[in-house]
Amino acid sequence: QVQLVESGGGLVQPGGSLRLSCAASGTIFSISNMDWFRQAPGDERELVATITSGGDTLYTEAVKGRFTISRDYAKNAVYLQMNSLKPEDTAVYYCGVRAQPHSGALYDTYWGQGTQVTVSS
């Protein structure tokens, strides 16, 4: 089984920065895409950023130029550096990882527990 543990959320003033971390552990044979999603109250969960196994990245338009996704292959970890935060970035942030627990097994998506990010003065 694959477990994901997130950390790094909190309360920050507009214009501030936070760095989210997500580490995968357990039985892992291979990881493909690693994602960050977010969900604000009353809204659907939306994809914020993706990083592929080859290191290619993709961002939703609202965070381009402010957020940076990265990964540590050795640690099976993904990070989200968030700069110039705005009140509209307030949400619960979830990491999602496409992983293959065993050789020959199908890839499945595993989720972190979520971490609250609040941007407010």
Short description:
The chain starts with a strand and ends with a strand. The protein has strands spanning 2-7, 10-12, 18-26, 30-39, 46-51, 57-59, 67-72, 77-82, 91-100, 108-111, 115-119.
Q: Estimate percent helicity.
A: under 10%
The arrangement of helices and strands along the chain is EEEEEEEEEEE
How many DSSP-defined strands?
Answer: 11
What is the 3D shape? elongated
Describe the structure.
It is a single chain. By secondary structure, the chain is mainly beta. The protein has strands at residues 2-7, 10-12, 18-26, 30-39, 46-51, 57-59, 67-72, 77-82, 91-100, 108-111, 115-119. Strands 2, 4, 5, 6, 9, 10 and 11 form a seven-stranded mixed sheet that branches. A hairpin with a 6-residue loop joins strand 4 and strand 5. The chain is elongated. It starts with a strand and ends with a strand.
